[in-house]
Write a structure and sequence with these properties.
By secondary structure, this protein is mainly beta. The chain has 2 domains: 49-264, Pectate Lyase C-like (3 Solenoid); 293-476, 3 Solenoid (Pectate Lyase C-like), CATH 2.160.20. The chain has helices at residues 2-26, 35-45, 74-86, 193-204, 302-308, and strands at 57-59, 68-72, 90-94, 98-101, 104-105, 110-114, 119-122, 133-137, 140-144, 149-152, 155-161, 164-166, 225-228, 231-236, 239-241, 254-259, 262-265, 279-284, 287-290, 295-297, 312-318, 321-322, 325-331, 339-349, 354-361, 369-382, 386-391, 403-416, 420-425, 432-442, 447-451, 454-455, 458-464, 467-468.
């Protein structure tokens, strides 16, 4: 009996050692077949659940809202949302009409629902986005104008319906704040550049983010939709146009679903969807035609990203269409917290103004580890620069050399490529590791490779301009 107990104990210890060994071995380990990441993705999918809401409606017109496109309805939205929240939740319904408003702050258990063709038109008066709130701006924490739709520390929130969110931004309002003449800036107008530099300095100095006060006079454009430190977030069905800056920017959120959203806006830094330091994210069936990256996965800039230390992890991107944009699926550049387990499948991309299909951009001021990026079944009409680009020299250098590893790209067809099929610009002491491309057919490319430092580069049945691509001896 004693020997049996001892044997059982040894078996348990051995099992624990085996599990520990496997866990250690798995870290930084490359996939060996696409079945592995596909299986991981399906397990992840079961963990992402859209929030559900009480079957109660709160019509904003019952709280004094007027849909004439001229009357400001900020107070009506606030009262409707607070009442819905206090009464256990439900839908705050925006009926047919154009409802002008300032900042909208969502609360737990509230679904802001737009009926078909209803429009929320956001004010061009910056004072309508005061008082300031705690926010992230380009990956750095500060006090600034409220995002147009904002929530902090809430659970079970949503924006749904087949209506329109119109940021009302143009060359005379919001966009020129970026400081670029092509977006309306001219001498005598304010611009964000001095405040942006100041925020960078405060970040490097590791100051208390709540003492970084911006807002009026600083010209840091607010993002469009930013749930911050929220759980169970749904954004579905809506169309977003004319954003002041980034469109959908969940920060430090968990369990996020973005589905059937259409983003069309070509202003400066008008990224489509930028989940930042989020966990368990599904972006599906969306359309992006943007002035910057279509989807950009982030985790904070430099000192703030390292201090908070929350990676972007467990993201599924599927059945999306990308048109104009600096990149289709992008990781970075604010990626100091790292990124892992990013899956992109069954997407289409096509525009001469879409620069890259998959882009990882970072630098030695960012640092962090980007790993386990899986892309499969992508149809591309045309792109401008590269099908896949890994760049460790984006913006300024520093003392935190990044790591990029375990990149898998499979079943990608390109009708008319751009300059390159693959670009890698890495550090000699930190080469991109385990980058694999399988069953890709890339036509119309000027030069197949522009690559410096890689380790474990693999091509399997990759054709560039009709010729099978092999790994050059210099990269083996």
């Amino acid at each position: 009996m004693k020997r049996t107990i001892q044997a059982a104990g040894m078996a348990v210890i051995f099992g624990m050692m085996l599990l520990s060994s496997c866990a250690i071995k798995k870290k930084g380990m490359a996939w060996t077949s696409s079945a592995q990441p596909l299986r991981e993705m399906e397990i992840l999918r079961t963990k992402i659940k859209a929030p559900k809401f009480a079957d109660k409606d709160f019509l904003i017109t019952d709280f004094g809202a007027v849909g004439d496109g001229k009357t400001k309805n900020t107070a009506a939205f606030k009262k409707a949302i607070e009442t819905c929240n206090q009464q256990g939740g439900g839908r705050v319904v925006v009926p047919l009409g154009t409802f002008l408003t300032g900042a909208i702050h969502l609360k737990s258990n509230v679904n802001l629902h737009l009926v078909d063709s209803a429009k929320i038109l956001f004010s061009q008066d910056a004072n309508d986005y005061l008082p300031m709130v705690f926010t992230r701006w380009e990956g750095m924490e500060c006090m600034n104008y409220s995002p147009f739709i904002y929530a902090y520390g809430q659970e079970n929130i949503a924006i749904t319906g087949n209506g329109i969110l119109d940021g009302n931004s143009d060359y005379d309002n919001w966009w020129y704040w970026c400081g670029a003449k092509k977006f309306g800036w001219k001498e005598g107008l304010g611009r964000q550049n001095p405040a942006r530099d100041s925020l960078h300095t405060l970040n490097h100095q590791k100051t208390d983010p709540k003492t970084r006060i911006f807002g009026p006079g600083y010209f840091l454009r607010p993002n469009f939709v930013q749930p911050y430190n929220c759980k169970n977030v749904l954004i579905s069905g809506i169309k977003m146009i004319n954003s002041p800056m980034w469109n959908i920017n969940p920060v430090l959120c968990e369990n996020v679903t973005v589905d059937r959203v259409k983003v069309i806006t070509h202003g400066p830094n008008n990224d489509g969807c930028d989940p930042e330091s989020c966990r368990n994210v599904l972006i599906s069936n969306c359309y992006f035609d943007t002035g910057d990256d279509c989807i950009a996965i982030k985790s904070g800039r430099d000192e703030d990203g390292r201090r908070i230390g929350r990676p972007a992890e467990n993201h599924i991107i599927e059945n999306c269409e990308m048109r104009d944009g600096h990149g289709g699926v992008v990781i970075g550049s604010e990626i100091s917290g790292g990124a892992r387990n990013i899956y992109a499948i069954n997407c289409t991309m096509d525009s001469k103004d879409l620069d890259r299909v998959l882009r990882i951009k970072t630098s030695s001021s960012r640092g962090g580890t980007t790993e386990n990026v899986f892309m499969k079944d992508i149809k591309v009409g045309t792109y401008g620069e590269a099908l896949v680009k890994c760049n460790m020299f984006y913006e300024k250098a520093g003392n935190f050399i990044p790591t990029i590893r375990n990149i898998w790209v499979e079943n990608v067809t390109v009708e008319k490529g751009g300059k390159y099929a693959l670009m890698v610009n890495a550090y000699k002491e930190s080469p991109v590791a385990n980058l694999r491309m399988i069953n890709c057919d890339i036509k119309g490319v000027k030069t197949a490779l522009n690559v410096d430092y890689v380790k474990g580069l693999v091509f399997e049945n990759v054709k560039v301009n009709g010729q099978i691509l092999s790994v050059p001896d210099s990269l083996k």
